Amino acid sequence: ISPSVRKARNFIQHVSDVRARIEPWGHHGTMAHIAASAASARLPNDIHAQLDMDRVGATLYGHRSHEGEDITLLREAMVVSAPVATVIERSVGDTVGYGSTHRLQNGETHTANLAAGWLHMPRSLSNRGFIANRKGQRFRMLGAVSMNTTVLNADDEADGLNLLRDGEMVFLLGAPGPSAEEMAKLIDLPPSYLSL
User: Fold this and answer.
1) Residue 144 burial (C-beta neighbours within 10 Å; 0-12, 13-18, 19+)
2) Among 26, 74, 133, 157, which Cα is nearest to 142's?
3) What is the pLDDT of residues 5-38, one digit of tens each?
4) Distance CA 42, CA 59 (A)
5) Phi and psi dihedrals of 138, rounded to 5?
6) Three-state SS at 5
7) What whole-number distance in Å separates Cα of residue 177 and Cα of residue 20?
8) What's the pTM value of the predicted model, to 2 decimals?
9) How far lies 88's CA from each of 70, 100, 144, 154, in Å?
């Protein structure tokens, strides 16, 4: 018996004891669960059957819940998109965002204001994250992610052509945009942090 199965069986016994102690006070049918996403996948079915439910979160979205979990059978089930509010022609040397944390360089002459900000994604993606358009072309986030807007480089970094347009839908998470796994690696957090 593995240590995790032994712990699970001990927990089930503890829950059973607690339920027996609170029943005289009118607490009948109190629900209990033993497993979040990772345990739901790892524990044998006979353990799950002894309690009322499993509490899956990350797995429901198609993400792994811990490092090393095999997710080959999972597919991301969530897409987050937002419109480009406006595309602006800028000059090399201009600064972007609160705190002027990014200075525009060659190949960054058009910026796009995305109608999504830290209300929709972690602020820690500032100057790190990226999004994609319907064709899967990627655009870097420039400067600080603000409350409800994010600035993107709207140009093709290879040839400098402006590729984003006002009103165009772009993808923050999920195909054709970046996966939660990719974005989570940029900010050293689990993928579930981005979707829950």
Assistant:
1) buried
2) 157
3) 788 788 878 888 888 888 888 887 777 777 777 6
4) 12
5) -100, 145
6) helix
7) 51
8) 0.72
9) 44, 17, 17, 9
Name the H helices within the chain. 3-22, 37-42, 45-48, 180-187, 192-195
**Per-residue pLDDT reduced to its tens digit, 147-179:** 999 999 998 776 667 788 999 999 998 889 898
Distance between CA atoms of residues 158 and 42, nearest Å: 46
Phi/psi class of residue 74: alpha, beta or left (left: φ > 0; alpha: ψ in -120 to 50)? beta
Using an 8 Å Cβ cutoff, are 127 and 101 in contact? Answer: yes
Question: What mean pLDDT do residues 112-116 have?
Answer: 92
Asked whether the beta carbons of 80 and 65 are under 8 A apart, the reply is no
- Do residues 112 and 154 touch, judged by C-beta distance below 8 A? yes
